[in-house]
Each structure stands twice: as structure tokens, then as C-alpha cells.
Design brief:
The mean pLDDT is about 85. The N and C termini lie close together (about 10 Å). It is globular, with a radius of gyration of 13 Å. The chain is built from two helices and nine strands; from the N terminus they run E-E-H-E-E-E-E-E-E-H-E. The strands form two sheets. Strands 6-5-8-3-2-1-9 form a seven-stranded mixed β-sheet. A two-stranded antiparallel sheet has the order 4-7. With about 120 residues, the chain is mostly beta strands.
């Protein structure tokens, strides 16, 4: 599984960095964050080509950031287990609940991805 550094640049110029797992294949994407009982502040999941996510079977709420062409188009804050969210996005990022607000992520924020060192 590949890991990346996600550099989030908000409209105010603030930056937040998270190390994201990028699952490979159908089963890796389907598993996602299932089984997690908590997430570190800088932990998350990067899902390219993903306009919708679900939290079926999850134990914790998450924030979901939908991105299209390098810009945040929707933020679902504290999405509880057993919910579905979608947007006209090309990428979804799942991060700990509350992290999007603390990072100042709002629709219109620019997002840049950079490959991380192997962890």
C-alpha cells in the first residue's frame, strides 16, 4: 500500500499535512478504514477516482473531503458510521473527525499531493 503526504493549502494560506494510505485494488479500497477504532491526527485514506464513500461497518466517525481538479468541492464533517456521501469529485480523502475543521478545509481550498517516503 502506498503512502503519500497530503499538503492541504486553505484559502487563507494555512497548511496541514497528513500521511495518507492509498489502498490498491478492489478489496483494499472496500476495506478502507474498517476495523479502526481510532485515527491519529495525521492519518487518513486517499481514494482516487472516488466520487462516493460509505461508512458501513465502521466504528468511528470521519471527515470526508471531496476533491475535483485540485480543489475541495465538498466537506462532510463527522460522518457517522452507516452513512453514505457523494459529490461530483475525482478524489475522496477520509481523515479523523474534526480534522477538516481544524485544518480550515472548506470548498474552494486548493489541495496538493506529494509522494511520501516509504513508511
Amino acid at each position: 500500500m502506498r503512502r503519500r503526504v497530503l499538503n492541504l493549502v486553505t484559502p487563507t494560506g494555512d497548511k496541514a499535512v497528513a500521511v495518507l494510505r492509498q489502498p490498491r485494488g478492489f478489496f483494499g479500497r472496500a476495506k478502507g478504514l474498517l476495523g479502526k477504532t481510532s485515527l491519529d491526527e495525521s492519518e487518513g485514506l486517499l481514494l482516487p477516482l472516488c466520487p462516493a464513500v460509505h461508512t458501513s461497518g465502521m466504528r468511528i466517525p470521519i471527515d470526508v473531503v471531496f476533491i475535483r481538479r485540485g480543489r475541495v468541492i465538498r466537506v462532510v464533517r463527522e460522518m457517522k458510521p452507516w452513512r453514505v456521501a457523494a459529490a461530483m469529485a475525482d478524489t475522496a480523502v477520509e481523515i479523523p473527525a474534526g480534522r477538516a475543521e481544524r485544518a480550515g478545509l472548506v470548498p474552494g481550498a486548493r489541495v496538493h499531493f506529494a509522494t511520501a517516503f516509504k513508511i
